[in-house]
Specification:
Helix content is 85%, strand content 0%. It starts with a helix and ends with a helix. The protein contains eight helices and no strands. It is globular. The longest helix is centred in the last third of the chain and has 52 residues.
């Protein structure tokens, strides 16, 4: 009888601690959301000559750099290594990284829906990111995989934003624009497809991660391939454009040379 009472008391304590942790996570997520929203409105106030999308993309750029820095430290320094230890308990640093990104994704999702700037694929990406982070925080495990996905997703973000800013400022049709495009395509293929595929394989063969986490990993990887189709189409168009420019330049050089000989 005494043992049963002790076990019941322990169960009550565990439930209370669990509820307290979830309450702290909710407060933390709301605080991060308010910080991203405040940052956006500050940019709009001090950068009023630019469009709303310009300032929103600045917020996106800051989040991308911040997320990559934190998650790279988690993966390479703080640990554990995501390829060998999927499904492990969340660490405080992993939780902090996911809460910060959760606040950002909620802000950006609301912004995109309000201004209707994104299609269903990007909205699906944001939705799965929010649900994946919420599930990982609720379960209290697989935080290292969540941070690895954040790293792989956000590492191409600065290049994507740089490409947009170059277009807006009229510097996209330059050598710098070509370098940004090449780096973006290469980094996306390496990180999202090859490294992401390896991460998914390690996730699926490991007995530790929950079934729902594995399903989320498959969904995110499938979405990467949807993006990949668009990137391949873009790469083909870009390649044709480069070949056309080189052919036109060669024709101009040849014509100038021929005229020079006639003179």
């Amino acid at each position: 009888m005494c043992t049963i009472k002790v076990m019941s008391f322990a169960a009550v304590v565990n439930v209370f601690q669990s509820q307290e942790k979830m309450a702290l996570l909710v407060v933390g997520a709301l605080l991060c959301l308010s910080c991203w929203v405040s940052f956006y409105f500050i940019l709009c106030n001090f950068n009023g000559s630019r469009s709303y999308e310009w300032n929103c993309r600045l917020v996106t750029l800051v989040h991308g750099i911040l997320a990559v820095c934190i998650t790279s430290y988690i993966g390479y320094v703080d640990g554990p290594w995501p390829f060998t230890h999927p499904g492990t308990k969340n660490t405080p640093l992993q939780i902090s990284a996911m809460v910060v990104s959760l606040g950002y994704f909620i802000f950006d999702m609301a912004w995109c829906v309000y201004f209707r700037t994104e299609g269903p694929v990007m909205l699906a990406h944001h939705t799965m990111s929010i649900l994946g982070i919420l599930l990982t925080l609720w379960l209290g495990e697989s935080g290292i995989e969540g941070c690895a996905v954040l790293f792989g997703s956000e590492i191409t973000n600065p290049l994507l934003q740089a490409r947009w800013f170059l277009k807006q400022t009229g510097h996209y049709a330059t050598r710098l624009g070509d370098v940004v495009d090449v780096l973006f395509v290469l980094l996306f293929v390496v990180m999202r497809i090859f490294v992401g595929g390896t991460m998914l394989y390690c996730e699926l063969i490991s007995p530790r991660p929950r079934f729902f986490i594995k399903c989320g990993g498959v969904a995110m990887y499938a979405l990467s391939w949807v993006f990949m189709v668009d990137i391949v189409r873009f790469a083909i168009r870009k390649s044709k454009s480069w070949h056309k420019q080189q052919r036109d330049q060669q024709e101009i050089v040849a014509a100038n040379g021929h005229e020079g000989k006639r003179d």
